[in-house]
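[step 3/7] inverse_fold.run input=structure_tokens len=560
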């Protein structure tokens, strides 16, 4: 049993506990927040007076592990040449070597997340076939708890179940798959479209009503059936959706149809910025924002949540489980490109991209992302993300904080954009400024609630002692860039803005209960189709892994 730790006199911002800046002490023991002891106890005190205290931040949608992330690192050696070197902590033997660029290597990603006060991260697109690899990579990510969403929207077994109207078979398969691969949630990416891309040159599903050849199902059916099955399995985060037509002018109609398709069920739409475009493909300048109409729909549907996928200016990498999208992006940019199909499950595309503020389309994407934060009325329904590294690196999160909290800074940035953008976006008319409490919602409390993580995102008794201590600064970017102190599971990892030690994180999994009547037939289907043996698929009992798996309970139905 560990001794008591007291964080004394901090200014606590914790929306879950209704604290918006109350000065109070926080007590920690055995990695958890505890109530103030009623008897005197032997303890260590850290003075955090005049500093702002929040729970550790949560990135609920990023790409940090797995085959496509490794491909992205390898295909861009040019990004590593100019990467800054940090030798002191390496020489002290605290840190492992690594590289940065837009896709940091695995240890570096953990260190950089820690340095920003992030203590939990979810990789948003892991093919089930790559799960084993991802779990081993997670073991090398220091300091952060991790989990992943696994790709299911183009899975042959699932599409066959849907075509037969076999809801119970689909539910059973989804339960089997999520358990087998150690996933946290199912992820739908371009439902049907990836399968059509794999079948034929330039194949895609641009309409939710299009029939997927060979399966006789439509993207709309895939979205509805998986969302229904995942909600029936009571998973903590039922479903994560990257819908069809990402990045295509005029795609807002597909997005609205998707929001309507889930029809009252809990669902999360990912990187919604990339799905909010008006205009047609013929004329580039017809591109415009459709956030107002989409946000209005979200505002009247509390069961729906979104993360933004904010674009920031600079060099980065697009990486996606959406095969046809990878092809489209490299055609637009003329950049190098990687594409791969994953047997009966998924696909992927990777291509470098640079966002420029003088480029009309890029500047409009930037504005559309900010519109989402400012037009969703309830901050509990919108989550900060750059879809790292797609819209930009997670290292840009502090800049987004400043853009939301400081409208003068936002105006300065707007003034530097390609001026045509202001005719196509309402951003310049939006005066809203986020409070610190609202920032705490969209960076930790909200994602924790959306993910069903009752023990994260807040500082109440029983929460994980993942704590971030900030030095107040009227420049909010500076404040959030360099937390004074970061504590993970009760251990002080960052002190005076420097990493002092590292700890092993946990892997969060869903483990849904499901009817196992199909297990045998699923195994037999697997053996007769896949290129590898079933015993090498997923995590089995998890005994090959050093890291702890933590099963997260389902949300009570009343929360849905
Ligand atoms: Zn993503």
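[step 3/7] decode complete -> sequence:
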């Amino acid at each position: 049993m560990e001794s008591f730790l007291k964080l004394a006199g901090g200014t606590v911002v914790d929306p879950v506990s209704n604290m918006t800046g109350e000065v109070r002490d926080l007590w920690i023991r055995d990695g958890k927040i505890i109530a103030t002891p009623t008897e005197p106890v032997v303890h260590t005190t850290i003075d955090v007076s005049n500093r702002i205290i929040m729970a550790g931040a949560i990135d609920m949608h990023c790409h940090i592990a797995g085959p496509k992330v490794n491909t992205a690192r390898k295909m861009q050696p040019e990004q590593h040449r100019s990467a800054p070197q940090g030798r002191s902590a390496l020489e002290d033997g605290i840190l492992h070597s690594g590289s940065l660029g837009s896709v940091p290597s695995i240890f570096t990603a953990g260190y950089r997340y820690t340095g920003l006060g992030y203590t939990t991260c979810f990789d948003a697109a892991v093919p089930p076939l790559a799960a084993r690899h991802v779990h081993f990579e997670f073991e090398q990510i220091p300091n952060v708890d991790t989990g992943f969403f696994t790709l299911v929207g183009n899975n042959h077994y699932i599409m066959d179940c849907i075509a037969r109207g076999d809801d119970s078979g689909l539910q059973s398969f989804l339960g089997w798959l999520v358990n087998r691969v150690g996933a946290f949630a199912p992820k739908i990416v371009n439902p049907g479209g990836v399968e059509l891309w794999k079948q034929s040159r330039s194949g895609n599903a641009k309409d939710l009503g299009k029939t997927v050849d060979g399966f006789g199902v439509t993207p709309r059916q895939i979205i509805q059936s998986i969302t229904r099955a995942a909600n029936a399995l009571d998973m903590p985060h039922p479903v994560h959706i990257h819908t069809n037509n990402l990045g295509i002018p005029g795609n807002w109609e597909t997005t609205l149809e998707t929001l309507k398709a889930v029809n009252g069920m809990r669902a999360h739409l990912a990187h919604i910025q990339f799905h909010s475009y008006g205009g047609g493909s013929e004329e580039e300048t017809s591109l415009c924002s459709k956030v107002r109409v989409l946000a209005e729909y979200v505002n009247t549907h509390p069961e729906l949540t979104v993360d933004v996928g904010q674009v920031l200016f600079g060099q980065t990498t697009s990486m996606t489980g959406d095969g046809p999208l990878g092809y489209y992006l490299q055609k637009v940019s003329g950049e190098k490109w990687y594409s791969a199909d994953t047997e009966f499950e998924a696909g992927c595309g990777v291509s470098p991209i640079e966002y420029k503020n003088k480029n009309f389309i890029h500047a409009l994407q930037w504005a559309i992302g900010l519109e989402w934060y400012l037009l969703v009325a309830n901050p509990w329904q919108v989550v900060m993300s750059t879809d790292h590294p797609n819209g930009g690196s997670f290292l840009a999160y502090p800049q987004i904080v400043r853009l939301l909290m400081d409208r003068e800074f936002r105006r300065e940035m707007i003034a530097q954009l390609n001026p045509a953008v202001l005719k196509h976006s309402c951003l310049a008319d939006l005066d809203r400024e986020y409070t610190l409490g609202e920032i705490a919602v969209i960076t930790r409390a909200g994602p924790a609630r959306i993910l069903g993580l009752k023990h994260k995102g807040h500082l109440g008794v029983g929460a994980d002692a993942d704590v971030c201590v900030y030095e107040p600064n009227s420049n909010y970017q500076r404040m959030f860039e360099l937390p004074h102190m970061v504590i993970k599971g009760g251990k002080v990892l960052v002190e005076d803005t420097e990493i002092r030690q590292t700890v092993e994180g946990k892997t969060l999994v869903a483990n849904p209960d499901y009817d196992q009547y199909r297990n045998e037939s699923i195994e037999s289907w697997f053996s007769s189709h896949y290129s590898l043996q079933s015993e090498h698929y997923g995590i089995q009992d998890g005994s090959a892994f050093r890291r702890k798996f933590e099963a997260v309970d389902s949300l009570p139905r009343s929360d849905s």
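[step 4/7] annotate
The chain has a mean pLDDT of 94.
The chain has 18 helices and 24 strands.
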